[in-house]
């Protein structure tokens, strides 16, 4: 029997009997079929040193070729070795740009940056400090 003065004593039991199981079922299904909890999510994959080098060198090589920048290697976030790769690539890209146009020069930049960075990091991170 309900509390004294409660016009509908069974409402409370109906709500608890229907709503509570539905909430528990939704919570349980959400865990098994939905997005895993934060701690169970896989961490993003790390970018290899060679790929990071490729991205940085290709980006800055295009910027230098277009004449929009030519800062020092540290302001570009490059090591001295990566900057040497950039200088070689830009020299070659300038020659290609004169003979074959900007699109061919950009293709050369991407191809050479990928190749030269893969070569630089083929045995892991070069020694000689972080700016080697």
Can I get a quick summary?
The protein is built from five helices and no strands. With 132 residues, it is mostly helical.
Average residue-wise pLDDT: 78
Tell me the distance between the termini.
82 Å
Which percent bin holds the helix content? 55-70%
Largest beta sheet, briefly?
Answer: none
Low-confidence stretches: none
Name the shape in a single word: extended
Strand % is under 5%
What does this structure look like?
There is one protein chain. The protein is extended. α2 packs across α4, α2 runs antiparallel to α5 and α4 packs antiparallel against α5. 64% of the residues lie in helices and 0% in strands. It has a domain of 72 residues. It has 132 residues and is mostly helical. It is built from five helices and no strands.
Q: Topology, please?
A:
Blueprint: H1 11-33, H2 49-65, H3 73-76, H4 80-100, H5 102-120
Helix pairs in contact: 2-4, 2-5, 4-5
Question: Which characteristics define this entry?
Answer:
extended, 64% helix, 132 residues, mainly alpha, single chain
């Amino acid at each position: 029997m309900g509390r004294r003065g409660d016009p509908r004593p069974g409402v409370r039991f109906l709500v608890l009997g229907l709503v509570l199981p539905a909430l528990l079922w939704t919570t349980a299904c959400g865990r098994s079929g939905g997005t895993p909890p934060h701690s169970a999510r896989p961490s993003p994959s790390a970018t290899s040193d060679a790929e990071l080098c490729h991205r940085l060198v290709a980006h800055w090589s295009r910027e230098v070729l277009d004449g929009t920048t030519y800062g020092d290697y540290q302001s570009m976030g490059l090591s001295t070795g990566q900057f040497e790769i950039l200088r070689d690539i830009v020299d070659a890209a300038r020659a290609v740009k004169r003979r074959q146009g900007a699109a061919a020069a950009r293709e050369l930049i991407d191809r050479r940056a990928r190749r030269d960075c893969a070569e630089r990091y083929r045995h892991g991170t070069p020694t000689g400090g972080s700016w080697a």
